[in-house]
From TrEMBL:
Belongs to the DegT/DnrJ/EryC1 family. It comes from the Bacteria. GO terms for molecular function: pyridoxal phosphate binding; transaminase activity. The keyword Kinase does not apply. The modification N6-(pyridoxal phosphate)lysine is found at residue 184. This is DegT/DnrJ/EryC1/StrS aminotransferase family protein. InterPro entries: DegT/StrS_aminotransferase, PyrdxlP-dep_Trfase, PyrdxlP-dep_Trfase_major, PyrdxlP-dep_Trfase_small.
Amino acid sequence: MLSNFVPLASPDINETDINNVVNVLKSGMLVQGENVGLLENFFSDYLGAAHASALSNGTSTLHLALVTLGIGPGDEVIVPAFSYVATANVVELVGAKCIFVDIDENTFNIDVNKIKEAITPNTKAIIPVHEFGLACDIESIMSIAKEHKLYVIEDAACALGATQNNKKVGTFGDFGSFSLHPRKSITSGEGGILTTNNSDYSAQIKILRNHGIEMQDGKMEFVAAGYNYRMTDFQAALAHSQIQRLDNILKLKQALADVYLSEIKNPKITLPVVPEGRNHTWQTFHVLIDDSLQQSEVLEFLRNNKIGANYGAQCIPAMKYYKEKYSLDYKEKFPNAYKAYTKGVAVPLYEKLNEDTVYKISQILNTI
Ligand SMILES: *Cc1c(COP(=O)(O)O)cnc(C)c1O
């Protein structure tokens, strides 16, 4: 039995983080001071991306990527049927059409074998998601995209540090989109980072995030109907402080995931799979329960046992807006996405937990 309730997620904010934020507050430079630049430089160096732009969250990063590529009405964008709903919302925001593709039931990532059949003459881009922190098969997706001349925006919101064949995700596609929400490995409160290797795109993002302002001959010109998608400097200071220990955080999370992987032995529970050549950063530890179990009952059982648990992500075409707009037979067309949505259970995994707690949670999972 656990002595205290273990929430599903809990950000780790230490004294150094707090001091770094307070220093910015005391400086009076609250917006786009030096920490925004430091955070962007850290990201581009860490990932090996030419450019990184700090934005207000991991949804504005996806949105600006689509805007920068000129994707809009009449265009189709391929998205996985199972993800956090923001992945599809941004396609709607630019007036384009979502083309949903089912996921692989073992990895919860888009089923690469089903992408080609979803491509039409109107397809402009693919937004593959590195779901729950596991790198998707981005190499295969890049070769499909190349063959069909499609843009790729990697939704790496959960996957900072994930790799395929030792190359970091977020550097394969035209854009890499990261979230710094408190549910992710490191946080700025709200925040996002958009990476690209294309300097024209990067320049455009920096204009669009800041009201369409471009400096020309030392003078501010308003060259586009831009957004205000800036990150404040105290948010950047928090993320920049946390990112110094990212490798350690990822190591701790891997150690906790290893406890789950070796200790959960319930035949009614299917454990997550990490394919050859790819790594998992364990933003979420997500298991599948079998047909003999009801998701709502399992979640309630876990909460009664002081374990914060929830479903992992949405079967997007089954959500009210998408159900009404697209009228897709989602149970039939996206069986794996629907299964992950209705049989998925996310359990606590974050660096503040210790192995003993994860061991105890595993034992409770074994009694279901
Ligand atoms: C968290 C998340 C987002 C959105 O990020 P925010 O910073 O909350 O806007 C987008 N896509 C995926 C896959 C996510 O997990």
